[in-house]
Amino acid sequence: MKVFGVSESDSNRLMGRDWLWLSLICSFGLGSVAIQAGWILALFGGYLFWRKGAVVIDPSLRQMWFWLGCLAIPALLSLFDSALIGRSGRTLFRMLSFGLAAVVLIQIPPSAPALRKVTIGVALAVIFFCVDGIVQKLTGQNMIGNTLWSDQFSPARITGFLGINFAWVLMVLSPWLFEGCRLLDGRGFAYWLAIPLLFAAVILGGSRASGLLLGISVLSYATLIGFRLGMAASLKFLVPVFVSLLGSMVILAMNPELGDRWLAVMGIFPGGAGDVSEILSWRPYLWDAAIALFLEHPINGVGIRAFGVSSEALIVGYGVADHIPGRAYNWSPHLSVLEVAADLGIVGLLGYAILLTTLVRWLISAPMVAIAPGLTALMALFPLGSTLSLFSARVSAVAWISIATALAFAKVASHSRRR
Fold it and tell me: Is the distance from CB of 119 to CB of 176 less than 8 angstroms?
Protein backbone atom coordinates (compact mmCIF):
# COMPACT_ATOMS: atom_id res chain seq x y z
CA MET A 1 0.00 0.00 0.00
CA LYS A 2 1.26 3.47 -0.87
CA VAL A 3 0.54 6.78 0.82
CA PHE A 4 1.40 9.78 -1.38
CA GLY A 5 3.68 7.56 -3.45
CA VAL A 6 5.59 6.09 -0.49
CA SER A 7 5.14 2.43 0.41
CA GLU A 8 4.46 1.36 3.95
CA SER A 9 7.64 -0.70 3.86
CA ASP A 10 9.68 2.53 3.73
CA SER A 11 9.21 2.97 7.46
CA ASN A 12 12.66 4.46 8.07
CA ARG A 13 12.17 7.14 5.43
CA LEU A 14 8.76 8.01 6.79
CA MET A 15 10.16 8.22 10.31
CA GLY A 16 12.87 10.59 9.13
CA ARG A 17 10.32 12.75 7.32
CA ASP A 18 8.10 12.90 10.40
CA TRP A 19 11.01 14.00 12.60
CA LEU A 20 11.77 16.77 10.10
CA TRP A 21 8.17 17.92 10.33
CA LEU A 22 8.30 17.98 14.12
CA SER A 23 11.56 19.95 14.02
CA LEU A 24 10.11 22.43 11.53
CA ILE A 25 7.06 23.22 13.65
CA CYS A 26 9.09 23.50 16.86
CA SER A 27 11.37 25.95 15.05
CA PHE A 28 8.47 28.43 14.88
CA GLY A 29 9.53 29.63 18.31
CA LEU A 30 13.17 30.12 17.39
CA GLY A 31 12.77 33.11 15.11
CA SER A 32 15.68 33.09 12.67
CA VAL A 33 15.62 29.29 12.41
CA ALA A 34 12.07 29.32 11.06
CA ILE A 35 12.93 32.18 8.70
CA GLN A 36 15.94 30.34 7.27
CA ALA A 37 13.94 27.12 7.03
CA GLY A 38 11.36 29.01 4.99
CA TRP A 39 14.02 30.10 2.47
CA ILE A 40 15.42 26.57 2.16
CA LEU A 41 11.94 25.17 1.60
CA ALA A 42 11.26 27.85 -1.00
CA LEU A 43 14.39 26.89 -2.97
CA PHE A 44 13.44 23.22 -2.89
CA GLY A 45 9.84 24.13 -3.72
CA GLY A 46 10.97 26.11 -6.74
CA TYR A 47 12.84 23.05 -7.98
CA LEU A 48 9.80 20.80 -7.46
CA PHE A 49 7.57 23.31 -9.19
CA TRP A 50 9.91 23.41 -12.18
CA ARG A 51 10.20 19.61 -12.36
CA LYS A 52 6.55 18.87 -11.55
CA GLY A 53 4.45 21.58 -13.12
CA ALA A 54 1.37 19.44 -12.44
CA VAL A 55 1.42 20.56 -8.81
CA VAL A 56 -0.68 23.55 -9.91
CA ILE A 57 -3.71 21.25 -10.07
CA ASP A 58 -3.34 20.29 -6.40
CA PRO A 59 -6.38 21.85 -4.66
CA SER A 60 -4.45 22.31 -1.41
CA LEU A 61 -1.78 24.34 -3.19
CA ARG A 62 -4.40 26.37 -5.02
CA GLN A 63 -5.97 27.19 -1.65
CA MET A 64 -2.58 28.21 -0.26
CA TRP A 65 -1.88 30.49 -3.21
CA PHE A 66 -5.35 32.01 -2.98
CA TRP A 67 -4.77 32.96 0.67
CA LEU A 68 -1.29 34.23 -0.12
CA GLY A 69 -2.69 36.32 -2.95
CA CYS A 70 -5.10 38.04 -0.56
CA LEU A 71 -2.13 40.03 0.78
CA ALA A 72 0.44 39.60 -1.99
CA ILE A 73 -1.70 41.30 -4.65
CA PRO A 74 -2.34 44.40 -2.48
CA ALA A 75 1.38 44.41 -1.61
CA LEU A 76 2.21 44.42 -5.31
CA LEU A 77 -0.18 47.32 -5.91
CA SER A 78 1.42 49.23 -3.04
CA LEU A 79 4.81 49.06 -4.76
CA PHE A 80 3.90 51.63 -7.42
CA ASP A 81 4.19 54.57 -5.04
CA SER A 82 5.74 53.01 -1.95
CA ALA A 83 7.60 55.36 0.36
CA LEU A 84 10.27 52.67 0.71
CA ILE A 85 10.15 50.74 -2.55
CA GLY A 86 13.25 48.62 -1.89
CA ARG A 87 11.99 47.27 1.42
CA SER A 88 8.47 46.83 0.04
CA GLY A 89 9.86 44.79 -2.84
CA ARG A 90 11.92 42.58 -0.55
CA THR A 91 8.96 41.98 1.74
CA LEU A 92 6.75 41.01 -1.20
CA PHE A 93 9.46 38.66 -2.51
CA ARG A 94 9.70 36.98 0.91
CA MET A 95 5.91 36.65 1.04
CA LEU A 96 5.83 34.98 -2.37
CA SER A 97 8.60 32.60 -1.31
CA PHE A 98 6.18 30.96 1.12
CA GLY A 99 4.06 29.93 -1.84
CA LEU A 100 7.02 27.88 -3.08
CA ALA A 101 7.75 26.57 0.43
CA ALA A 102 4.17 25.29 0.50
CA VAL A 103 4.91 23.15 -2.57
CA VAL A 104 7.34 21.09 -0.47
CA LEU A 105 5.14 20.92 2.62
CA ILE A 106 1.98 19.94 0.77
CA GLN A 107 3.66 17.56 -1.69
CA ILE A 108 5.77 15.86 1.00
CA PRO A 109 3.49 15.76 4.07
CA PRO A 110 4.03 13.68 7.20
CA SER A 111 2.72 10.13 7.25
CA ALA A 112 -0.86 9.62 8.40
CA PRO A 113 0.11 7.67 11.57
CA ALA A 114 2.52 10.46 12.53
CA LEU A 115 0.01 13.33 12.63
CA ARG A 116 -1.03 12.58 16.20
CA LYS A 117 2.58 12.05 17.34
CA VAL A 118 3.78 15.27 15.73
CA THR A 119 1.01 17.26 17.44
CA ILE A 120 1.80 15.74 20.83
CA GLY A 121 5.51 16.29 20.23
CA VAL A 122 4.99 20.00 19.56
CA ALA A 123 2.81 20.24 22.69
CA LEU A 124 5.62 18.74 24.78
CA ALA A 125 8.06 21.20 23.24
CA VAL A 126 5.79 24.11 24.21
CA ILE A 127 5.63 22.79 27.77
CA PHE A 128 9.43 22.67 27.80
CA PHE A 129 9.61 26.29 26.58
CA CYS A 130 7.22 27.32 29.38
CA VAL A 131 9.22 25.57 32.09
CA ASP A 132 12.48 26.97 30.73
CA GLY A 133 11.10 30.52 30.79
CA ILE A 134 9.75 30.14 34.31
CA VAL A 135 13.13 28.83 35.48
CA GLN A 136 14.82 31.84 33.88
CA LYS A 137 12.47 34.24 35.64
CA LEU A 138 12.97 32.61 39.02
CA THR A 139 16.74 32.05 38.87
CA GLY A 140 17.91 34.73 36.44
CA GLN A 141 19.00 32.32 33.72
CA ASN A 142 17.45 29.52 31.71
CA MET A 143 18.59 25.92 31.30
CA ILE A 144 21.49 26.79 29.01
CA GLY A 145 22.54 29.93 30.86
CA ASN A 146 20.69 32.64 28.90
CA THR A 147 20.06 35.58 31.22
CA LEU A 148 17.05 37.87 31.44
CA TRP A 149 17.04 40.61 28.82
CA SER A 150 16.82 44.25 29.79
CA ASP A 151 16.80 47.65 28.13
CA GLN A 152 15.43 51.09 28.93
CA PHE A 153 11.93 49.99 27.96
CA SER A 154 11.72 46.42 29.26
CA PRO A 155 13.60 45.51 32.45
CA ALA A 156 14.28 41.85 33.31
CA ARG A 157 12.35 40.29 30.45
CA ILE A 158 12.13 36.52 29.83
CA THR A 159 13.77 35.19 26.68
CA GLY A 160 14.35 31.48 27.34
CA PHE A 161 15.02 29.73 24.05
CA LEU A 162 12.48 31.94 22.26
CA GLY A 163 13.99 35.44 22.34
CA ILE A 164 12.51 38.72 23.52
CA ASN A 165 9.08 37.85 22.11
CA PHE A 166 8.83 34.91 24.51
CA ALA A 167 5.17 35.42 25.47
CA TRP A 168 4.07 36.06 21.87
CA VAL A 169 5.61 32.79 20.69
CA LEU A 170 3.90 30.82 23.46
CA MET A 171 0.57 32.45 22.60
CA VAL A 172 0.92 31.62 18.92
CA LEU A 173 1.91 28.02 19.63
CA SER A 174 -0.79 27.55 22.29
CA PRO A 175 -3.23 25.71 19.93
CA TRP A 176 -0.62 22.97 19.52
CA LEU A 177 -0.43 22.66 23.31
CA PHE A 178 -4.22 22.48 23.68
CA GLU A 179 -4.70 19.93 20.91
CA GLY A 180 -1.69 17.87 21.98
CA CYS A 181 -3.09 17.61 25.51
CA ARG A 182 -6.47 16.52 24.14
CA LEU A 183 -4.86 13.79 22.04
CA LEU A 184 -2.52 12.70 24.84
CA ASP A 185 -5.20 12.25 27.47
CA GLY A 186 -8.88 12.11 26.53
CA ARG A 187 -9.87 12.44 30.19
CA GLY A 188 -8.47 15.96 30.32
CA PHE A 189 -5.84 15.46 33.03
CA ALA A 190 -3.07 16.74 30.74
CA TYR A 191 -4.81 20.12 30.58
CA TRP A 192 -4.38 20.50 34.35
CA LEU A 193 -0.61 20.25 34.05
CA ALA A 194 0.00 22.15 30.83
CA ILE A 195 -2.43 25.08 30.95
CA PRO A 196 -1.28 26.45 34.36
CA LEU A 197 2.32 26.32 33.11
CA LEU A 198 1.33 28.20 29.94
CA PHE A 199 -0.57 30.89 31.85
CA ALA A 200 2.24 31.31 34.38
CA ALA A 201 4.84 31.66 31.63
CA VAL A 202 2.81 34.25 29.69
CA ILE A 203 2.03 36.22 32.86
CA LEU A 204 5.69 36.22 33.89
CA GLY A 205 6.64 37.15 30.33
CA GLY A 206 4.89 40.46 30.94
CA SER A 207 3.42 40.95 27.45
CA ARG A 208 -0.12 42.21 27.95
CA ALA A 209 -0.84 42.11 24.21
CA SER A 210 0.14 38.43 24.14
CA GLY A 211 -2.03 37.82 27.19
CA LEU A 212 -5.03 39.26 25.34
CA LEU A 213 -4.39 37.08 22.30
CA LEU A 214 -3.92 34.03 24.52
CA GLY A 215 -7.46 34.63 25.75
CA ILE A 216 -8.64 34.78 22.14
CA SER A 217 -6.74 31.58 21.37
CA VAL A 218 -8.43 29.85 24.32
CA LEU A 219 -11.90 30.98 23.25
CA SER A 220 -11.27 30.06 19.61
CA TYR A 221 -10.07 26.57 20.48
CA ALA A 222 -12.90 26.00 22.97
CA THR A 223 -15.47 27.10 20.39
CA LEU A 224 -14.01 24.88 17.67
CA ILE A 225 -13.83 21.71 19.75
CA GLY A 226 -17.25 22.45 21.21
CA PHE A 227 -18.66 22.71 17.70
CA ARG A 228 -16.81 19.63 16.47
CA LEU A 229 -16.73 17.35 19.52
CA GLY A 230 -19.52 18.59 21.76
CA MET A 231 -19.93 20.79 24.81
CA ALA A 232 -18.41 18.20 27.15
CA ALA A 233 -15.08 18.38 25.32
CA SER A 234 -15.13 22.16 25.49
CA LEU A 235 -15.91 22.23 29.22
CA LYS A 236 -13.18 19.67 29.91
CA PHE A 237 -10.79 22.24 28.44
CA LEU A 238 -12.33 25.40 29.91
CA VAL A 239 -12.45 24.33 33.57
CA PRO A 240 -8.63 24.13 33.97
CA VAL A 241 -8.39 27.36 31.95
CA PHE A 242 -10.67 29.13 34.46
CA VAL A 243 -8.72 27.73 37.42
CA SER A 244 -5.44 28.79 35.78
CA LEU A 245 -6.82 32.29 35.27
CA LEU A 246 -7.60 32.52 38.98
CA GLY A 247 -4.09 31.26 39.72
CA SER A 248 -2.70 33.99 37.48
CA MET A 249 -4.48 36.59 39.60
CA VAL A 250 -2.72 35.15 42.65
CA ILE A 251 0.66 35.41 40.88
CA LEU A 252 -0.04 39.07 40.09
CA ALA A 253 -1.12 39.80 43.65
CA MET A 254 2.06 38.23 45.06
CA ASN A 255 4.36 40.09 42.65
CA PRO A 256 3.65 43.84 42.90
CA GLU A 257 6.09 44.82 40.16
CA LEU A 258 4.54 42.42 37.69
CA GLY A 259 1.03 43.00 38.98
CA ASP A 260 1.31 46.76 38.58
CA ARG A 261 2.19 46.33 34.91
CA TRP A 262 -0.76 44.05 34.17
CA LEU A 263 -3.31 45.82 36.34
CA ALA A 264 -2.29 49.23 35.01
CA VAL A 265 -4.51 48.60 32.00
CA MET A 266 -7.48 49.12 34.31
CA GLY A 267 -6.53 52.78 34.24
CA ILE A 268 -7.74 53.13 30.65
CA PHE A 269 -11.34 52.43 31.60
CA PRO A 270 -13.73 55.11 32.89
CA GLY A 271 -12.83 55.96 36.44
CA GLY A 272 -9.32 54.56 36.08
CA ALA A 273 -6.22 56.55 36.82
CA GLY A 274 -3.19 57.14 34.65
CA ASP A 275 -2.25 58.34 31.21
CA VAL A 276 -3.76 56.03 28.59
CA SER A 277 -0.87 56.43 26.16
CA GLU A 278 1.76 55.61 28.76
CA ILE A 279 -0.24 52.65 30.08
CA LEU A 280 -0.48 51.27 26.54
CA SER A 281 3.25 51.80 25.91
CA TRP A 282 2.61 54.83 23.68
CA ARG A 283 0.78 52.72 21.10
CA PRO A 284 -2.12 55.21 20.70
CA TYR A 285 0.27 57.63 18.99
CA LEU A 286 1.28 54.91 16.54
CA TRP A 287 -2.39 54.12 15.95
CA ASP A 288 -3.14 57.78 15.29
CA ALA A 289 -0.25 57.95 12.82
CA ALA A 290 -1.48 54.82 11.03
CA ILE A 291 -4.98 56.28 10.69
CA ALA A 292 -3.56 59.57 9.40
CA LEU A 293 -1.44 57.77 6.79
CA PHE A 294 -4.42 55.65 5.74
CA LEU A 295 -6.52 58.78 5.20
CA GLU A 296 -3.72 60.34 3.14
CA HIS A 297 -3.20 57.18 1.03
CA PRO A 298 -6.57 55.39 1.18
CA ILE A 299 -6.36 53.22 -1.94
CA ASN A 300 -3.07 51.31 -1.79
CA GLY A 301 -1.36 52.75 1.31
CA VAL A 302 2.21 53.96 1.79
CA GLY A 303 3.74 50.63 0.80
CA ILE A 304 4.23 47.37 2.68
CA ARG A 305 6.70 47.86 5.58
CA ALA A 306 6.96 51.59 4.82
CA PHE A 307 4.95 52.76 7.83
CA GLY A 308 8.01 53.59 9.93
CA VAL A 309 9.67 56.12 7.63
CA SER A 310 6.27 57.50 6.60
CA SER A 311 5.17 58.09 10.19
CA GLU A 312 8.40 59.53 11.57
CA ALA A 313 7.45 63.18 11.06
CA LEU A 314 4.06 62.58 12.70
CA ILE A 315 5.54 60.77 15.70
CA VAL A 316 8.19 63.44 16.17
CA GLY A 317 5.44 66.04 16.00
CA TYR A 318 3.55 64.21 18.74
CA GLY A 319 6.68 64.51 20.89
CA VAL A 320 6.90 60.80 21.75
CA ALA A 321 9.65 59.59 19.40
CA ASP A 322 12.00 59.00 22.34
CA HIS A 323 9.48 56.66 23.95
CA ILE A 324 9.26 54.29 20.97
CA PRO A 325 12.09 51.74 20.82
CA GLY A 326 14.25 51.24 17.76
CA ARG A 327 14.80 53.34 14.67
CA ALA A 328 11.86 54.78 12.77
CA TYR A 329 12.74 52.40 9.93
CA ASN A 330 11.50 49.49 12.08
CA TRP A 331 8.43 51.09 13.65
CA SER A 332 5.04 49.49 13.05
CA PRO A 333 1.52 50.56 14.09
CA HIS A 334 1.42 47.74 16.70
CA LEU A 335 -2.09 46.80 15.63
CA SER A 336 -2.31 44.43 12.68
CA VAL A 337 -5.48 45.80 11.15
CA LEU A 338 -4.08 49.35 11.21
CA GLU A 339 -0.80 48.14 9.76
CA VAL A 340 -2.68 46.67 6.79
CA ALA A 341 -4.67 49.91 6.44
CA ALA A 342 -1.61 52.17 6.50
CA ASP A 343 0.66 49.97 4.37
CA LEU A 344 -1.84 48.58 1.85
CA GLY A 345 -4.90 50.84 1.99
CA ILE A 346 -8.48 49.80 1.20
CA VAL A 347 -7.28 47.18 -1.28
CA GLY A 348 -5.22 45.55 1.46
CA LEU A 349 -8.05 45.69 4.02
CA LEU A 350 -10.35 43.95 1.56
CA GLY A 351 -7.78 41.20 0.90
CA TYR A 352 -7.09 40.86 4.64
CA ALA A 353 -10.81 40.49 5.38
CA ILE A 354 -11.18 37.82 2.67
CA LEU A 355 -8.14 35.95 4.02
CA LEU A 356 -9.37 35.90 7.62
CA THR A 357 -13.00 35.12 6.74
CA THR A 358 -12.19 32.22 4.42
CA LEU A 359 -9.53 30.86 6.79
CA VAL A 360 -12.06 30.75 9.65
CA ARG A 361 -14.66 29.10 7.40
CA TRP A 362 -12.09 26.52 6.31
CA LEU A 363 -11.14 25.80 9.93
CA ILE A 364 -14.75 25.15 10.91
CA SER A 365 -14.99 22.23 8.48
CA ALA A 366 -11.32 21.14 8.33
CA PRO A 367 -10.19 17.76 9.75
CA MET A 368 -9.34 17.92 13.44
CA VAL A 369 -5.65 17.30 12.73
CA ALA A 370 -5.52 20.71 10.99
CA ILE A 371 -6.97 22.65 13.93
CA ALA A 372 -3.64 23.30 15.73
CA PRO A 373 -1.68 24.69 12.75
CA GLY A 374 -4.75 26.52 11.43
CA LEU A 375 -5.38 28.31 14.72
CA THR A 376 -1.66 29.07 15.01
CA ALA A 377 -1.84 30.87 11.66
CA LEU A 378 -5.00 32.70 12.72
CA MET A 379 -3.37 33.92 15.94
CA ALA A 380 -0.30 35.13 14.02
CA LEU A 381 -2.53 37.04 11.57
CA PHE A 382 -5.14 38.20 14.11
CA PRO A 383 -6.34 41.81 13.56
CA LEU A 384 -5.69 42.81 17.18
CA GLY A 385 -2.10 41.56 17.19
CA SER A 386 0.01 44.37 18.64
CA THR A 387 3.36 42.81 19.56
CA LEU A 388 5.19 42.36 16.25
CA SER A 389 4.72 43.75 12.77
CA LEU A 390 2.28 41.62 10.79
CA PHE A 391 4.64 41.76 7.81
CA SER A 392 7.83 41.08 9.76
CA ALA A 393 9.92 38.06 8.80
CA ARG A 394 9.11 36.25 12.06
CA VAL A 395 5.33 36.65 11.89
CA SER A 396 5.25 35.89 8.17
CA ALA A 397 7.25 32.67 8.60
CA VAL A 398 5.00 31.41 11.39
CA ALA A 399 1.74 32.43 9.68
CA TRP A 400 2.36 31.12 6.16
CA ILE A 401 4.22 27.95 7.13
CA SER A 402 1.40 27.21 9.59
CA ILE A 403 -1.18 27.64 6.84
CA ALA A 404 0.78 25.29 4.58
CA THR A 405 1.07 22.83 7.48
CA ALA A 406 -2.68 22.94 8.12
CA LEU A 407 -3.35 22.23 4.44
CA ALA A 408 -0.80 19.39 4.40
CA PHE A 409 -2.29 17.79 7.52
CA ALA A 410 -5.82 18.12 6.12
CA LYS A 411 -4.71 16.52 2.86
CA VAL A 412 -3.23 13.52 4.68
CA ALA A 413 -6.34 13.11 6.82
CA SER A 414 -8.69 13.33 3.84
CA HIS A 415 -6.62 10.82 1.90
CA SER A 416 -6.60 8.40 4.86
CA ARG A 417 -10.41 8.55 5.14
CA ARG A 418 -10.78 7.60 1.48
CA ARG A 419 -8.57 4.51 1.82
Answer: yes
